[in-house]
Amino acid sequence: MKRSGTADLPLHGGRVPPWLAARMTELGTAIAEHIVLEYGPSEFLTRLSDPFWFQAFGSVMGMDWHSSGITTSVMGALKRGLNSRFSELGLAVCGGRGRHSVRTPDELRAFSMKTGLDGEALARTSRLTARVDNNAVVDGFQLYLHSFVITKAGEWAVVQQGMNAGNHLARRYHWHSTTVRDFVSDPHTAILGKPQGTILNLVDARAAKAQRALLTIAKEPVEASLQEARKLTMPAHHDVRAKDVDLKRLGAVLAVAHERELRDFASLLLVEGLGPRTLQSLALIAEVVHGAPSRFSDPARFSFAHGGKDGHPFPVPLKTYDESLAILRRSLEAARLGHTEKVEGFKRLDRLTRTVEEDRQPLADFSAAIEHERRISASVGGRTVLDDRRDRKGMKTTGQQSLF
User: Fold this and answer.
1) b or e along 71-93 (b: 16 or more beta carbons within 10 Å of the residue's beta carbon)?
2) First to last CA, the chain
3) Is residue 273 classed exposed, middle or buried when 0-12, 13-18 and 19+ CB atoms within 10 A define those classes?
4) Which pLDDT tens digit goes with each residue over 120-177?
5) Three-state DSSP state, 138
6) 104 near 95, Cβ under 8 Å?
7) What ranges does the record give for the region Disordered, renumbered to this chain (predicted)?
8) To 10 degrees, what angle do helices 341-360 and 260-270 make?
């Protein structure tokens, strides 16, 4: 068990408005279900433990593409969405921000009562990962969020975040209990150590050696692990700029969504009659579900699915967001009945986008893409938190979720 990666992010406050929080819960849960359905719960933990994928995941959900608030909002959305579906998906989220973080050991003990796992060992693991990141490395970051994601088999991932008020940065830390299979077939660069081929089961008597190792992990030098782990550093500027995006990859998404012959074919992969704006979002969602690890080096690109709550790169298009959610829900409902054609369609859509990228070598006109999104914003229900402030005009805020 080693830390799998870190991310340094500008420290941003604010709130997640209820109209976005509810949609994030639905979209985050639907993406998780697609991944579990296709690759299994271990695969979802693999992705959560990659800082680049995590940032892309938050961006495609409509959060600010580079800010520290992604961590709080994504983990909160997953806890609301996954815990109620544990019997189906086999994933649960314990802990959270502030006072919720200190309840993690108790939540893990309660979880273990239901699953037969060793609750004390899990609680000890939770404390150790927090102590390593909070105390073993003196980097000026004080933890304020600790989320422990666990499967019913006992495999887990930890996502936790600290803030440094002095330099106005947040640092997110990712941990994974075991090296599992990669996204599709390539070796996963974010997980350190040799593949062991087994899933950690803390109840198994043979896990005694692993449990003893957990007790000594805080004494091990962590500098070597930090040098090997994946590290993401996000810029301070709030707007999305061309340099933040792989324009060839974005160009492929825009081509599939907006070029007539490609759009018609891509639409048939999912459901007939999809508009270009919805196809654009679905192509990016499909990549989050099926993309290889190397595809997430530019997480800002995924903000072209549903924009950002602060209006960067453009307002959140609520009509498009809801249509994307409806298509995802219908595909999952059909899959539960044994009809997997629409779920397979997302995989083929991702494959089509990569083929266009490789064969046509498209290059997005970044400025034109931003201008187009802002021009059509009103027609697709574009909304930001600034609109909420103008609407309230001093009225008391209700239903919003604080990022700190």
Assistant:
1) bbbbbbbbbbbbeeebeebbbbb
2) 29
3) exposed
4) 999 999 998 898 888 765 668 899 999 999 999 999 999 999 998 888 899 999 999 8
5) coil
6) yes
7) 381-404
8) 160
- Structure tokens, 358: 């490789």
What DSSP element (H or E) covers 374? helix 366-375
Mean pLDDT score across all residues of the chain: 86
Of 15-24, 224-233, 277-286, minimum mean pLDDT range: 224-233
Q: Are 173 and 126 in contact (CB under 8 A)?
A: no
Nearest in space to 170 (alpha carbons), one of 146, 148, 142, 136:
142
Tokens of 350: 């991702």
The span from the CA of 266 to the CA of 283, in Å, is 9
Q: Which helix (H) or strand (E) holds 71?
A: helix 69-83
Q: pLDDT per residue over 201-213, tens digit each?
A: 433 444 455 555 5
Q: State the pairing for strand pair 230-233/156-164.
A: unpaired
Comparing CA positions, the residue from 307, 276, 250, 279 lying closest to residue 23 is 307
Tell me if residue 5 falls in helix, strand or coil. Answer: strand
pLDDT over 50 at 295, yes or no: yes
Q: Which residue has the tokens 């330099």?
A: 167
What tokens were used for 352?
């089509």
